[in-house]
Automatic annotation (TrEMBL):
Residues 43-112 form the Acyl-CoA thioesterase-like N-terminal HotDog domain. Signal peptide: none annotated. It comes from Hyphomonas atlantica. Pfam families: 4HBT_3. This is Acyl-CoA thioesterase-like N-terminal HotDog domain-containing protein. Gene3D superfamilies: Acyl-CoA thioesterase, double hotdog domain.
Length: 158
């Protein structure tokens, strides 16, 4: 999956190094932050999205699963590094980690499996329950610290 296949204007997309394809940089924008005005910090889900994007671009494989450990917080405007390390590459899957750091300090450590068998049988083992469509649900207006310029202000919850 080439980097050009992704929306470059998505606020969670890091930039891949021209020198090392396993290194990425990401500067935390306002829209990726949550928290009180005087203490904006990068939302965990955005850091996960940035790491997943970096893993998929570096390996050219789709994500199967990921687990993340949040080791620290980082704030608005921080210049972050993401380093990808592959530690097992097989016929069907690659095991890799993404480490997101702020001036060498660990912020996120993500372990992931990428790849998978795409020509095997498809099964759905559990039937989904009947639920209302999202637009038929009542919107939630109680989103702490939501402002027009931060991530919480862009989320619609139902």
């Amino acid at each position: 999956m080439a980097d050009g296949e992704h929306a470059r204007d998505a606020f969670w997309v890091p930039s891949q190094s021209a020198v090392d394809p396993d290194r990425f940089t990401y500067t935390v924008p306002q829209v990726a932050c949550v928290g009180p005005y005087e203490s904006q910090f990068l939302m965990g889900g955005v850091s996960m999205a940035a790491c997943i994007h970096a893993l998929q671009v570096a390996t050219d494989l789709p994500l199967l699963w990921a687990t993340v450990q949040f080791a620290g917080a980082t704030g608005l405007g921080a210049d972050l590094d993401i380093h990808i390390t592959r530690f097992a590459e097989g016929r069907s899957a690659t095991q890799a980690v993404a480490d997101l750091t702020d001036n060498g300090r660990m912020v996120v450590h993500m372990a992931a499996a990428l790849g998978g068998v795409t020509n095997g049988p498809q099964h759905q083992f559990v039937q989904m329950p009947e639920v209302p469509a999202p637009m038929d649900c009542v919107p939630s207006r109680d989103i702490p610290f939501a402002r027009p310029d931060n991530l919480a202000g862009h989320i619609e919850r139902r």
